[in-house]
Write a structure and sequence with these properties.
Elements lengths: L6 H20 E9 L2 E3 L1 E5 L4 E8 L8 E6 L2 E5 L4 E3 L4 E8 L7 E9 L6 E9 L2 E3 L1 E5 L3 E9 L6 E6 L2 E5 L4 E4 L3 E8 L8 E10 L3
Length: 211
């Protein structure tokens, strides 16, 4: 028996297919590798201001930490696994792996690009100890208010160092600053700490009205 589809049903099916395709395109995964001194980068095009997350990095020499190296609109640098940066707009995102690896080994890494996600409230943390420092990173899609929530560990005081779109400041706990537009908010701790057993810790709260 031949089944008849009415025009309204056909229109719904077509629209549903288009929506499914759009949803699929909103998130992209790219992979990269490094072996024998050569690199195979991963790349994709972000269609708007996007969040890019380093989701996996492995293969590094024992005792070292592999990371993602990302080039994107408004960003060029390394990102630890689990952390995200924000692009300032549409454009090409290129992923490479960062780290040292054994002579007979190699690195692999993965990043996820999300063109639609927007988080209204985020908390990021930074730290410094033993001569190493770790930044807190977050992606924003709109103007954001950034507050230094806590900054501790410094022998003469500790600050939140904020770099964000249109904003760059060193703040004490309780102070706020406003960024402008999409991109990355980066937090680093500022201050001096004892050479043995000391360290800095800082936290910032980011709020934005998502478009």
């Amino acid at each position: 028996m031949k089944r008849q589809l009415f025009p309204g049903v056909v229109a719904v099916l077509v629209a549903g297919g288009l929506l499914a395709g759009a949803a699929f395109a909103a998130t992209q995964t790219i992979t990269a590798s490094t072996r024998n001194g050569g690199s195979t980068p991963g790349s994709a095009t972000a269609t708007s201001a996007s969040r890019v997350t380093c989701t996996q990095a492995s293969g590094a020499t024992a005792g070292t930490i592999p990371r993602c190296s990302l080039q994107a609109p408004g960003w060029n640098g390394v990102v630890e696994v689990g952390k995200s940066i924000g692009t300032t707009g549409a454009g090409n995102v290129v992923l490479n792996c960062n780290g040292s690896y054994p002579a007979n080994g190699g690195l692999s890494c993965t990043a996820q690009i999300d063109d639609t996600v927007c988080t209204a409230s985020q908390t990021i943390s930074g730290s410094a100890s033993g001569g190493s420092s770790y930044r807190g990173l977050a992606a924003v899609k709109a103007n954001a208010t950034i507050q230094c929530v806590s900054a501790t560990g410094g022998t003469g005081g500790t600050t939140c160092g904020i770099q964000a779109p249109g904003a760059n400041a060193s703040m004490t706990a309780g102070q706020t600053i406003t960024s402008s537009g999409p991109g990355t908010v980066a937090l680093s701790c500022g201050g001096q700490y004892p050479a043995s057993g000391g360290g800095l810790n800082c936290t910032a709260q980011i709020t934005q009205v998502c478009p």
